Amino acid sequence: MSNGESKEETSAQHKCMRCSATSQSRALISVEFKGQSQWICAACLPYFIHGG
Ligand SMILES: [Zn+2]
Question: What is the 3-state secondary structure (H, E, C) of the chain?
Fold first, then answer.
């Protein structure tokens, strides 16, 4: 287990896996896809759910 989790990490910028929107402009939702953690924005979530 790591013990440095209180460190601030400003470099991590999550992006929507479909349209590359960041959390600056859209709400991002964390998903697990093909065994990896990904992010999807609120606008793309319907497409993701329906497999588009
Ligand atoms: Zn998106």
Answer: CCCCCCCCCCCCCCECCCCCCECCCCCEEEEEECCEEEEEECCCHHHHHHCC
| Residue 42 pLDDT | 95
Q: Ligand 1 centre from 39 Cα, in Å?
A: 8
Measure 40 CA to ligand 1 centroid, in angstroms. 5
**Domains of the chain: which residue ranges?**
14-52
> Which residue in the block uniquely carries the two structure tokens 């993701």?
48
CA 27 / ligand 1 centre spacing (Å): 9
